[in-house]
Amino acid sequence: MAECGRKALSLLEAARSRYESLQISDDVFGESGDDSSDNPFYSTSGDSDSDNYIAEVAGGGTGGGSAAGPPGSLSRSQAEEEGWTETLQDVTVPPYKETYGPAQKMLATATALDFFQLFVPDNCIQNMVTQTNMYAKKFQERFGSDDGWRPVTAQEMKAFLGFVTSTSVHRCESVLSIWSSGFFSNRSIALKMSQARFEKILKYFHIVAFRPSQGSNQGLYKIQPFLDSLQQSFSCTFRPSQTQVLHEPLIDEDPVFITTCTERELRKRKKRKFSLWVRQCTSTGFICQISVHLKEGTDGLAALKNKPQLHSLVAKQLCQNISGRNTIIFTGPSITSLSLFSEFSKQDIYCCGLLSTRKSDCTGLPQNMLVCGSTPAQRGQSRVMMKGTMSLISWYNKGHFRFLTNAYSPTKQGMIIKRKSGEIPCPLAVEAFAAHLSYICKYDDKYSKYFIFHKPNKTWQQVFWLSISIAINNAYILYKMSDAYTVKRYSRAQFGERLVRELLDLDDCSPTQ
């Protein structure tokens, strides 16, 4: 028994050594939770509760796909004519052409505000001041003067951001609760600004006061300059690792909060009218690029009815700045397709994606790899076909899982290690996908707990506060990778509280221990 335990441990250590780039631990935000685990590998079983990202595929292989295969797939003879073969060859990805990590060294004395202002600098805040005052003037010219209004200052705008950001620390939906006498009241910061003044700034707050005469994204014109600035700062402050993932992060309502809402409160809440896609570094969780698209409106993407086509366009937007670097991209079923991966390979972008016969564009893929055979498969059993350097993998683990990749050699084997089932053999691509997506899922589970809880009705404001949440999380990652973290080891909650107090310019900026 002891020998078996030592063998399993050595296998786990060998597997872990292949992913040493996953440097920030599962305990990414400085506190552990129920989702923390000693096992870094993603559970790719069909019945796994933690496998929300790919759980839909567990049934897709066993029940999805008729004998004819999904639309666009090839018969056996067509596949042979197109170059698909069961003869496997080794595939090697060239070395990564970048060194990853923070692009600039921060001092050990750097504060939470210093890291936040890498993304939201003073000139950005000054622009908010200018546009808010312009909008207030325009509004009052049209609807009558507001005797209670006076132009906002940069210091007040920072405090305004601090008050709203505090909802991510104390997890209260209404920022006005700060001035109440209830559970979420916070007298220590409420004295910095009156509730009446805060509500006036909230009423007139704007990033862009006037609609531009022309632009490529009219539907998001009120937020687009800020998104462009934020995107540029993400690119300038951090260089991601070779392995990155394209996905939709968890941005839906907090389920704990929803259970506390009355039916009347739920009816008043407006459904989110946008979707957010990101390119995220799998080694650290740093979000490198964001892409927002409106579900209704004139942003161009809404006109695309075909979901795989829409997601393919989003993927191209997210990867437009990483060509020629030998980056490896992991994708979910809605993005994975042979045509997209082939196009990326011409740009020296290598891919590893999960396939679904229901959600993926299966055009050009062999039917016999996409439908289940009559003979029951054994756990860990896999089949592979190749076309050039592209591999199509069908792997069984309580359900059929299919992967398309040109980033990992089909001749190399890996394994998924589970506490109860032990080691399960799999192609190396499956192991790599599991390891990196496991990290991102655990990161997102933690990350979603630190959203700004303030819920405005206007779509552009929802996008703005979500973007601020992303910027704060990115700031914490840079802080954790800097010398400042060795001086004061703040958890994510403490970092957020410190940032709030620094935005409010409170003398005592030490977080609650």
TrEMBL record:
Residues 26-83 are annotated as: Disordered. Residues 58-67 have a biased composition (Gly residues). GO terms for molecular function: transposase activity. It comes from Amphiprion ocellaris. Residues 38-47 have a biased composition (Polar residues). It comes from the Eukaryota. Residues 112-476 form the PiggyBac transposable element-derived protein domain. This is PiggyBac transposable element-derived protein domain-containing protein. Residues 28-37 have a biased composition (Acidic residues). GO terms for cellular component: nucleus.
